[in-house]
Design brief:
The chain has 5 helices and no strands. The protein is mostly helical. The longest helix is centred in the N-terminal third of the chain and has 20 residues.
């Protein structure tokens, strides 16, 4: 049976190993047994290691995904117009230059510091 110190050492080593792997950009994924078998079979059929096969398939998947941060200009304009229209209920006049100036915004804090 392991002593408390031995268990702490094992935990410490496994934690450090996980940190090292993460810093190297490596990832551990736990697969369901049937998925692992299927991936291994497909990789073998193509003469690849399972790792090579999975990396290739993930790369294909990710390169075919649209960038969520980029939308077509027409869609962006439509969304912008919707957003503007959703604020039609606001009937307040625009703020003056003085109201949004730095001096006006921070006046009380600066006065308190003096």
């Amino acid at each position: 049976m392991f002593s408390y110190l031995a268990m702490r050492r094992i935990y410490s080593l496994s934690f450090n190993l996980a940190s090292v792997l993460e810093s190297l950009g490596l990832m551990t994924v736990t697969l369901k047994p049937h998925l692992e078998e299927e991936l291994a079979a497909r990789a073998k059929a193509e003469g690849l290691t399972t790792e090579e096969f999975v990396n290739r398939e993930l790369e294909k998947l990710l390169t075919n995904l649209p960038d969520p941060n980029r939308i077509p200009l027409a869609e962006w304009q439509r969304r912008w117009s919707e957003w503007l229209s959703s604020h039609d209920y606001i009937k307040a006049p625009p703020l003056s230059d003085e109201a949004i100036s730095r001096e006006s915004i921070y006046r009380e804090r600066e006065d308190a510091q003096l």
